[in-house]
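Lab notebook: predicted structure, single chain.

Context: the supervisor wants predicted structures on file for every construct in the current expression panel, including those that have not yet been purified. This is the next one on the list. No modifications to the sequence; it matches the entry in the shared construct table.
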Amino acid sequence: MAEGWARSLHAGVIEAQSAGTRPKEIDPMAVRVMREAGVDIAGHGSTRLADLTGERFDLAVTVCDDAREACPVVPGAARTVHAPFDDPPRLAAEARTEEEALGHYRRVRDKIRRFVEELPGLFEG
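Prediction complete. Output recorded below exactly as produced.
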């Protein structure tokens, strides 16, 4: 979702790319709630962090505690910051209804949007 927001809100300013320690297929519920907000992430995917060896980044943002623990410093990144967002699939797993599950995704989606709106300011610091 963060990559989708960055591409949507800061096209031409920020070149965003998702990577993970254990990337998986894109979550259909994430696709659905982002589409509700006018952002299509259906074609997005995540790269293995190891596949980015040798790449250079101005900024790396870890968005879950697992990533921060696995990669306290991201190789090739001039700076790494942590933005702790709840994990929607983990929250949705305990939901009793689909609407309740989607509510978790929407809440996290909106928090990520607010973070990404301010993202250009992190390049100045």
